[in-house]
Write a structure and sequence with these properties.
Length: 340
């Protein structure tokens, strides 16, 4: 039986109080939101915090609201289920709701939070194991060891970002609001990441995500999220890709965005591929030709490594397939007809 280590629990009433509590102990301290990721990681010996700061009592971390300018604010403690069932989010930001709905299973989505998914730790099949398994292996660079089992002789951890909502939020140009020891700060989600599997955020783990801010969408903004996984539920992504298409009044794509996940330590924007879509019209051959070129370019840019479960060569073959499917889903274009 895997048991939790002993730890102290604190229940702050404000975000500032929560951050201050992180610095009151000499040992490690961790925030806990829904606990769907932290608890199993603690049982596996990946974290052994002296203190756990529970966020459920902080009012400003809860709820979804729309501002007068049409932008939306999602509190970091809003559950994934609340995100997937919110009518305005489903209408304006479908890719985010799709991504949230594809996280794990319904019981965990009822507990897991949008903030917890954004701040999810990187994952690796050599790291996310029990203490006894890792000890027998000789540990790894991310925890207790010095060797990378993915890249022989590698000098940097390549554990993969596996948070489904992150690529969707990046294509939607979301901004993140944090409380840190220095005060409040707000940053584009694209600026949060760094290419380090040990800790892939530029802010320390003592920074508290308070809210996610989504700009008002274009008049005809369409989006979708595609996820490759072994089973139809529960699993983390073997590959995930989010797409956004902004359609002008003449039916032509004016702006587009693509972002992939589960490849490396950070979500990966596919900017070169995106440019090929601008100027095309969904439903016409020019769009479908562009989709094929984008899928081919995505396969060249996205090179899965054996850092998460699943055959990495198969995952690579699925990159153009899911890129193509997701773009057609975003455009609501059925794609070319294939006769059997």
């Amino acid at each position: 039986m895997l048991r939790l280590p002993k730890f102290e629990v604190k229940n702050p009433a404000t975000a500032e109080e929560a951050v201050a509590m992180m610095f009151e102990v000499e040992g490690d301290a961790r925030f806990i939101a829904g606990g769907t990721d932290l608890n199993p990681n603690m049982k596996h010996g990946l974290f052994a915090p002296e203190r756990v700061v529970a966020l459920s009592g902080i009012a400003e971390l809860q709820g979804i609201s729309r501002a007068e300018d049409g932008s939306m604010r999602i509190g970091a403690m809003t559950t994934l289920t609340q995100v997937t069932t919110h009518a305005e989010l489903r209408r304006s930001y479908p890719s985010l709701c799709q991504a949230a709905k594809l996280v794990s299973g319904p019981q965990l989505r009822n507990m897991g939070t949008i903030g917890g998914n954004v701040m999810l730790d990187t994952r690796c099949q050599w790291y996310n194991q029990t203490y006894f398994w890792r000890k027998a292996l000789g540990y790894c660079m991310k925890k207790d060891g010095e060797k990378c089992h993915v890249v022989e002789g590698g000098s940097k951890c390549v554990a993969a970002a596996s948070n489904d909502t992150a690529p969707a939020l990046m294509t939607l140009s979301a901004e993140l609001e944090f409380v840190t020891a220095e005060g409040r700060t707000r940053m584009p989600i694209a600026d949060l990441w760094q290419a380090d599997g040990i800790w892939n955020k530029k802010l320390p783990h003592t920074a508290l995500l308070v809210a996610i801010h989504l700009p008002a969408p274009a008049a005809d903004s369409r989006s979708a999220y595609g996820k490759l996984r072994d089973r139809g539920s529960v699993d983390f992504p073997l590959f995930g890709i989010a797409a956004r298409l902004d359609i002008g009044s003449d039916g032509v794509i004016e702006d587009a965005s693509l972002c992939a996940v589960a490849l490396q330590a950070r979500p990966w924007p596919l900017k070169k591929a995106t440019a090929l879509l601008v100027g095309t019209r969904p439903g016409e051959s020019c769009f479908r030709d562009a989709v094929e070129m984008v899928a081919s370019l995505a396969a060249k840019q996205c090179r899965p490594m054996p850092n998460i479960p699943g055959d990495h060569e198969y995952r690579h073959l699925m990159v153009p397939v899911f890129t193509r499917r997701t773009l057609y889903a975003a455009a609501d274009d059925k794609g070319p007809v294939h006769h059997v």
